[in-house]
């Protein structure tokens, strides 16, 4: 198809050229020029050719006259790019003084002023030089005001000045729409200050410009909603916020955990228990079952019975064993707590299990073992090797490796051995 199009175009050009040549042969035209007593007569064809030659000669002269200046500007721009590259590499390597020197030189070039000063501010902030960072942001603000605003707010958040960052971004948002980076900083600042309304407004503005991938926006939305649930000050406000969420949002694990913990803290343990139990019926989660044991002292007996019923379907869940141990500790069933926690340690010896075991041993007046358990909790948190349990406790704990049948997504049985 393309070849036929090319042939057709060539035929059209050939016909047009033949017609033009025939027309000029019949009448070549005439051009007359008269100026200050001078007179010039020539054919139209020669006049057109002469005009084109004159234009080409003048263009060459113009280029020759201005070539040195353009060459110098190109060289300066190339040198500025090299200095920005050197400054970026030096900043990453931690050589901030050299980075500042290279970036300051690059900022003298107008086309590179904004990126050079913005990176200069970043480098100064990493070095802890707040004055230099502020000076660089002040210098770049007339050139790139939104970038300077976003970076200034980021620096305030990094320094822990959450209220100042919130005030700065709120004032800027009242004047003009914020760029995506500033909106994300506004959401973070509002979350830290407990201003849920501002966070939701910034989240809605961020959703409109589609600057984030779907997965990233969902994560940010989840964190913002969890923050709003955590900051609820009254039980009715919490219930209203939870009911306003969509069904899909209420099934997100972080939101279920945030709601349950806050509801329990506000004296509403039954709704908290109900949401976690419903979520666990849909899909088992170690985080959710651990949160089930962190709902405070209310309804401990009911939660303990419910958690013990889950052992039949989740016998190799370290999170379930941790929750059972914590609930037994709250019920002062310290011997039973040590059995569950020992089983959990045979599956996954992490720091919370060791800490709960220490609490159980304290309740059983076994202070020596409690100290070992607490030391192991610290070592497990740091990724270090833990101490062995005393012989007296080993006999009481069921730490034998258990083999539990599980099935893959395709229904194939798999054998899971707990970690020793």
Walk me through this protein's architecture.
72% of the residues lie in helices and 4% in strands. It is mostly helical. Among the domains are: 62 residues, Serine Threonine Protein Phosphatase 5, Tetratricopeptide repeat (Alpha Horseshoe), CATH 1.25.40; 68 residues, Serine Threonine Protein Phosphatase 5, Tetratricopeptide repeat; 108 residues, Serine Threonine Protein Phosphatase 5, Tetratricopeptide repeat, CATH 1.25.40. The strands form 2 sheets. A two-stranded antiparallel ribbon has the order 1-2. Strands 3-4 form a two-stranded antiparallel sheet. Strand 3 and strand 4 form a beta hairpin. The protein is elongated. It contains 21 helices and 4 strands. Helix 7 crosses helix 8.
Summarize the structure.
With 420 residues, the chain is mainly α. It is built from 21 helices and four strands.
Distance between the termini: 71 Å
| Strand percentage | under 5%
Determine and state the CATH class of one domain.
Mainly Alpha
Q: Report the total helices.
A: 21
**Globular, elongated, flat, extended or rod-shaped: what is the shape?**
elongated
Order of helices and strands: HEEHHHHHHHHHHHHHHHHHHHHEE
Helical fraction equals over 70%
Uncertain regions spanning at least 5 consecutive residues: 394-404
Question: Which structural traits does this protein have?
Answer:
elongated, Serine Threonine Protein Phosphatase 5, Tetratricopeptide repeat, 21 helices, two-stranded antiparallel ribbon, 420 residues, two-stranded antiparallel sheet, 72% helix, mainly alpha
């Amino acid at each position: 198809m393309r070849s036929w199009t090319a042939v057709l175009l060539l035929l059209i050009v050939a016909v047009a050229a033949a017609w033009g040549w025939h027309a000029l042969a019949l009448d070549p035209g005439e051009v007359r020029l008269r100026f200050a007593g001078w007179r010039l007569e020539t054919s139209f064809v020669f006049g057109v050719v002469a005009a084109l030659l004159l234009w080409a000669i003048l263009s060459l002269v113009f280029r020759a006259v201005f070539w040195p200046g353009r060459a110098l500007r190109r060289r300066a721009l190339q040198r500025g790019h090299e200095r920005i590259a050197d400054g970026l590499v030096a900043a990453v390597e931690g050589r901030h003084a050299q980075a500042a020197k290279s970036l300051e030189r690059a900022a003298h070039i107008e086309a590179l002023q904004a990126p050079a000063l913005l990176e200069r501010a970043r480098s100064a902030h990493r070095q802890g030089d707040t004055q230099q960072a502020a000076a660089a942001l002040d210098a770049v603000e007339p050139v790139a005001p939104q970038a300077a605003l976003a970076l200034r707010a980021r620096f305030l958040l990094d320094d822990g000045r959450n209220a100042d960052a919130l005030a700065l971004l709120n004032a800027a948002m009242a004047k003009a729409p914020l760029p995506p980076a500033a909106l994300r900083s506004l959401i973070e600042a509002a979350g830290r200050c407990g201003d849920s309304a501002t966070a939701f407004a910034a989240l809605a503005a961020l959703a409109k410009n589609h600057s984030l991938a779907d997965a990233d926006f969902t994560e940010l939305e989840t964190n913002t909603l969890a923050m709003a649930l955590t900051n609820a000050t009254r039980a009715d406000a919490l219930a209203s916020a939870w009911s306003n969420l969509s069904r899909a949002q209420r099934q997100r694990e972080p939101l279920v955990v945030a709601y349950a913990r806050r509801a329990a803290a506000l004296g509403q343990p039954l709704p908290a228990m109900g949401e976690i139990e419903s979520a666990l019926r849909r899909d088992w989660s170690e985080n959710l079952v651990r949160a089930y044991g962190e709902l405070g002292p209310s309804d401990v007996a009911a939660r303990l019975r419910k958690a013990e019923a889950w052992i039949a379907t989740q016998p190799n869940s370290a999170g379930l064993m941790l929750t059972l141990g914590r609930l037994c500790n709250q019920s002062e069933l310290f011997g039973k707590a040590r059995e569950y926690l020992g089983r959990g340690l045979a599956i996954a010896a992490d720091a919370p299990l060791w800490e709960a075991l220490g609490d159980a041993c304290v309740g059983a007046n076994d202070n020596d073992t409690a100290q070992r358990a607490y030391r192991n909790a610290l070592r497990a948190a740091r990724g270090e090797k833990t101490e062995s349990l005393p012989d007296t406790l080993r006999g009481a704990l069921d730490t034998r490796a258990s083999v539990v049948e599980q099935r893959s997504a395709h229904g194939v049985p798999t054998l899971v051995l707990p970690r020793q």
